[in-house]
Amino acid sequence: MAQPICPDCQRRMEGGYMLNGVPASGHVAAGTWVEGPPEKGFWGLKLKGRRQLTVYAWRCPGCTQVRLYAPE
Asked: Higher pLDDT residue, 11 or 21?
């Protein structure tokens, strides 16, 4: 993904990511976008059959705005 420009102050944004919560196993993961509304299942949220994409975060060093992207 190309480095975006902040829509507010026109500076180049810094790339990074946001963490999902820390599960009981102690593992951490990058944020994930999941298609559709959340639905509860027996073991948490239902994910089977839903498109899932890694979420990338870009932060502006000027105005500190954070924008999230989930490219295919």
From this structure: 11
Q: pLDDT tens digits, residue range 48-70?
A: 999 999 999 999 999 999 999 99
Nearest-angstrom CA–CA distance, 4 and 44: 34
Q: What is the pTM of this model?
A: 0.74
Left, alpha or beta for 49 (phi > 0: left; psi -120 to 50: alpha)? left
Which residues, 6 or more positions from 16, have their beta carbon under 8 angstroms from its beta carbon?
56, 57, 58, 59
User: Using H for helix, E for strand and C for coil, what is the string for 11-72?
Assistant: CECEEECCECCCCCCCCCCECEEECCCCCEECCEECCCCCCEEECEEEECCCCCCEEEECCC
